[in-house]
Amino acid sequence: MEQTILSGDERREKLLALLLRSDEPLSGGKIGDIYHVSRQVVVQDIALLRSKGHSIVSTPRGYMYEKDAGNQNCRRIVKVCHTDDQAEEELSTIVDFGGIVLDVMVNHRTYGKVTAPLNIKSRRDIRKFVEDLKQSKSSLLSNTTSGYHFHTIEAESEDILDEIEEALKEKHFLVDFLDYETTFKQ
User: Fold this and answer.
1) What is the pTM of this model?
2) Where in the numbering of this chain does the 3H domain appear (predicted)?
């Protein structure tokens, strides 16, 4: 059976339709298999779709189209610092107050701003994240910056974000932004 070779635009159009129909995350590998391209091409396609305003989120299990992208949730970037052993407690503090940890970002002096999606919404997501780290040879991104890192947090209201910040402060995880880091705040 002969494969139909799609142009990049055609492939992205079909990919977008696939994501819109799917109720479950689709891994980059699975998407690549469907369209006979590498995972790296899928990553590039997702980036191009996002640049056109499509709300596609990355989860630990794959990509999803954020169907309720029109919601009016509030977002805030916080700067935190902790040890590897405290990562689960930090994430639990955020989700227990109703927050979603959208990403993690470090500001490395050599590599610059490095961001990775997390989309952690529950303690179940936290357990999976921690387990995935234990099973891999990887470590927390924040290890590249002595534990200092940023999270974009989403919640239903500014009050909830304030409560999250206060709880992180009480646990001594919250750190003040340096003067040159104010551009990271939203």
Assistant:
1) 0.62
2) 78-174
